[in-house]
Amino acid sequence: MLPGELGRFDLSRLTVVVFDVLRATTTMTAALDAGVSEIRIFDNLADARSAGERFGPDRILCGEQQCLPPQGFDLGNSPGAFHAGHDGRTLFMSTTNGTRAIVAAKNAAQLLIGSIINASAVARRAWDEGRDVLLLCAGTNGQVAMEDLIGCGAVLASMEQLGEVQQGADNARIARRLFESARADLMTALSQSQGGQNVIAAGLSADIEFAVRLDSSQMVGQVEPFAEGLRVKAIKSRD
Question: How far apart are CA 90 and CA 182, in angstroms?
């Protein structure tokens, strides 16, 4: 339900899928779809800004603070902001919840970026790896986020199309049932969540419309360590 629960698990044996449906993991998926070469991950804005400045002009500073773009950043955390003009660029990203959840899970055997828009693609990738899978919700300011649970449920539903799934806890069953109850009208469900209300209050309801487009992307981002920290890169489908 939250990154703070990770201490109960041996991440080195697990495939972990991180969800911050509104909006970081949706935005990362959209950025990779637009051709961004990699997304460098930071758990605070200052480090993202500093690393981006050292990198040079061919970088994009992306982040959010109280839903809005931080001062001096090129983009906020809106998935619809990415386009073909960002092809080949390097993204430096820090958000309130999503990037911190990724950093918290960095010791996983494999770390994938999950959302509603790439649920089936992520399910297939996690399934093919053959490990037990932990679905991690980023939450909103330390509270459980309904939209993240719905995203987990979407991935679980797709995995069930691939074979038998043994759900290890009621949290997974809750997520699965929540997705089914919301599936017919994901826009309303996400808009009514606290995260959705925050996004709407910031005048960014279009971000919710983007985030509910179930299986609109076949992109899967994978987190990997490198000399300067963590980065997300696209991994090719095995289909």
Answer: 35
CA distance 68 to 63: 8
**pLDDT at residue 22 greater than cutoff 60:** yes
Compute the chain's Rg from CA coordinates.
16
Counting Cα atoms < 13 Å in the Cβ hemisphere of 25 gives: 34
pLDDT tens-place string over residues 114-148? 999 999 999 999 999 999 999 999 999 899 999 99
Q: Would you call 56 helix, strand, or coil by DSSP?
A: coil
Span 67-93, mean pLDDT? 95
Of the candidates 112, 126, 98, 114, the one whose C-alpha atom is nearest the C-alpha of residue 152 is 114
What tokens were used for 79?
Answer: 């998935």
Contact predicate 219/232, CB 8 Å: no
Residue 228 confidence (pLDDT): 87
Residue 131 is encoded by which pair of tokens?
């490990």
Dist CA 223 CA 231 (whole Å): 5
Mean pLDDT on 184-202: 97
Provide the pLDDT for residue 236. Answer: 64
Query: Total structural domains in the chain?
Result: 1
Answer for the pair 168, 152: CB distance below 8 angstroms, yes or no: no
Residue 20's H or E segment, with its range, is none
> Which CATH number goes with the domain that contains 210?
3.90.1560.10
Instruction: Tell me which residue range forms the domain holding 186.
Output: 3-235
